[in-house]
Amino acid sequence: MNRNEKILLSALRGRRTMRPPFWYMRQAGRYLPEYRELRARADGFLDFCLTPDLAVEATLQPIRRFAPDAAILFSDILVLPWALGQEVRFEEGTGPLLEAVTDTAGLAGLDGSDVEGRLAPVAETVSRLAAELPEAVALIGFAGAPWTVATYMVEGGGSRDFAAVKGWAYRDPDGFQALIDLLVQATVIYLRMQVAAGAEAIQIFDTWAGVLPEADFRRWVVAPTAAIVAALKAESPRVPVIGFPRGAGMLYEAYVRETGIDAVGLDTAVPPSWAAAALQPLVPVQGNLDPVRVVTGSDGMFAAAGRIVDALAGGAHVFNLGHGLIPTTPPENVTALSGFLRGLKKSP
Ligand code: CP3
Predict the structure, then answer these.
(1) What would the pLDDT profile of 124-183 be if each residue is shown by its tens digit?
(2) 265 φ/ψ angles, rounded to the nearest 5 degrees
(3) Which of 22, 149, 228, 341 is 20 to 30 A off residue 16, Cα-Cα?
(4) DSSP assignment letter at 44
(5) How far is the CA of 26 from the centre of ligand 1 (A)?
(6) Residues that are catalytic
(7) Prediction pTM value
(8) In sequence order, what are the beta bridge partners of 72?
């Protein structure tokens, strides 16, 4: 055992740690006044993600305030479609808007040949962070999973029913496979670049994993994720990969067994007691406090966090939320939760 190993990496490698390490999905964001101020200095959200001075600062803001055990690169999953040549905009209030690619003809307009060049600013952000972060804080890189990125690319933004993306996958699975294959390839390039620049762990966000029936889940969620994990492992076997198949429900276990991920992120609906019995014997788990608990705060927040910590105390656990912090979160509640988590000690 390496006594100087960062606590997040120890837990992700399956070791029992004296307290669960913690970080928060969307720990950088609009709930922080200093983020809103920084954001106002960028031309648009993509420009913000692709300007290392701004992205480094956004990544560090929550580290200064809360001293979590990990920093997550400040960027977005939709920089990848942009790097493939798709038009991507972030509209204030409406979220992302993309020039939808809905069929094989649309695929011809995408170009995966310069992902590294177009996303070079992200690599610079990662390498500056690797140099600047406090010694105990691990740096997490990330990408969206192909299925989730494809939902935005094909729907042209967020969706309620996923009729366009499912429609393509059901009507023309071979054509849709070509989009997924392009995304697998580009994601591997992008994540390898982050690891080379200094990312010490990787998270793959599959926010919309939970909207697919079983057979399609295996084809569009499990198989592409397994391909990405295998490619990363071939080069960097020591860099843990966290998979977050949000909403996967009864398919969580298949996802863990079949993708080869090193750790799994639990959404808010996963019962921690079930995860302790079914998933934690297989891989370390991360999660899963309801982000709204951090909005309401007070005793209810600590009680809910305590229940999760207790239920998962028998194995490796990284404390996190079940989804990202939301804009109405009072930052002082995050401070209080962080103090509570730092004060925990595991009983021997
Ligand atoms: O602190 C961090 O977690 C790192 C930064 C990060 C962002 N997006 C910044 C962001 C990460 C890891 C993401 C991932 C991401 N982006 C996901 C997967 C995780 C999840 O939340 O489900 C998804 C689906 C996206 C796509 C996306 N980006 C949407 C749908 C939106 C609009 C909704 C919203 O919250 O505004 C974004 C914009 C976005 N990405 C913001 C931030 C801080 C807000 C944009 C702003 O500042 O105006």
Answers:
(1) 999 999 999 999 999 999 999 999 999 999 999 999 999 999 999 999 999 999 999 999
(2) -90, 130
(3) 228
(4) S
(5) 7
(6) 26, 30, 39, 76, 152
(7) 0.97
(8) 140
